[in-house]
Amino acid sequence: MPLDPAPSAPAPGRPGRPHVTAAVLAGGVGVRMGGPRPKQLLALDGRSVIEHSIAAFCAAPEVDDVIVLMVADHIAEVEKIVAAGGHAKVSAVLPGGATRTATSVAALDALAHRDDGDLVLLHDAVRPLVDRRTIAECVAALGEAGAVGVAVPSADTVVEVTQAPGGAEVIRSVPPRSRLRRMQTPQGFRLGVVRLAYARALADPGLVATDDCGVVLRYVPEEEVRVIPGAESNIKVTNPGDIEVAEALLRRRTGAE
Ligand SMILES: Nc1ccn([C@@H]2O[C@H](COP(=O)(O)OP(=O)(O)OP(=O)(O)O)[C@@H](O)[C@H]2O)c(=O)n1
Ligand SMILES: C[C@](O)(CO)[C@H](O)COP(=O)(O)O
Q1: Is residue 244 part of a domain?
Q2: Based on the number of CB atoms within 10 Å of its own CB, is 22 exposed (0-12), middle (13-18) or buried (19 or more)?
Q3: CATH of the domain at 206
Q4: Which ligand is nearest to the CA of 39?
Q5: Which residues have any ligand 2 atom within 6 Å of their CB?
Q6: Domain total of the chain
Q7: Is the pLDDT of residue 7 over 70?
Q8: Is residue 3 part of a domain?
Q9: How far is the CA of 81 from the centre of ligand 2 (A)?
Q10: Domain for residue 189, yes or no?
């Protein structure tokens, strides 16, 4: 599905406001989950995991359009999901990259026609329970900061480990828990900031990244990376059993409404 070639413009009825694109990253094949199909296509309460994520951003009034970066072999399947679900804000379904980082870069490439002041929310397709409050607060925080991560405090003590000379894993340090957070998505950026970060990152042969805020922190250190509260329910469907957890969380949410 081709991207709308229209040049960057404020959304109709919202003059002066930056355009907000949500990019749903779905280029992974789900090695840890196992199974024949990528985990973003697994069923969760009558919809695929990826459709929950797409629907959450389509329903958010702050979001103008949604692009999906999907494993190339399954693009047609996602296009059908989008059409059948009537997710009208989806402007493109494009191939992801070989790594999550490459998929983030593909999302930025797809937004080359947007202005540096426009906004992008990069979201794991496999976080289907992202809620409206989180999306709204992420976009609102981008009014003050060029990069915004969503995170929750750690209930567990988190330790750094290393290998002892005999090969056993041993604790190297115990960072103060009160300052530790577990990062989630969406992670939101002014396009100019995240473009600069990835331009520098891609020139670094030692690039290793597990999230996009980390890329900004490392390669644009002058930029503040703001952290806003996430939600414990915004889990990443990663391992066998996580679908059942997501179903239980979804039932609890539906019951609370
Ligand atoms: N090449 C990749 C790898 C990952 N992702 C996406 O990044 C999110 C978080 O990644 P992860 O949970 O690691 O997904 P997989 O890479 O599919 O899982 P695994 O590491 O177990 O293979 C997922 O929505 C996944 O589809 C992506 O867009 N492109
Ligand atoms: C971006 C992320 O979800 C933040 O917690 C996480 O780092 C993705 O890691 P993955 O190994 O690609 O699932």
Answers
A1: no
A2: buried
A3: 3.90.550.10
A4: 1
A5: 100, 124, 183-185, 210-211, 236, 238
A6: 1
A7: no
A8: no
A9: 24
A10: yes
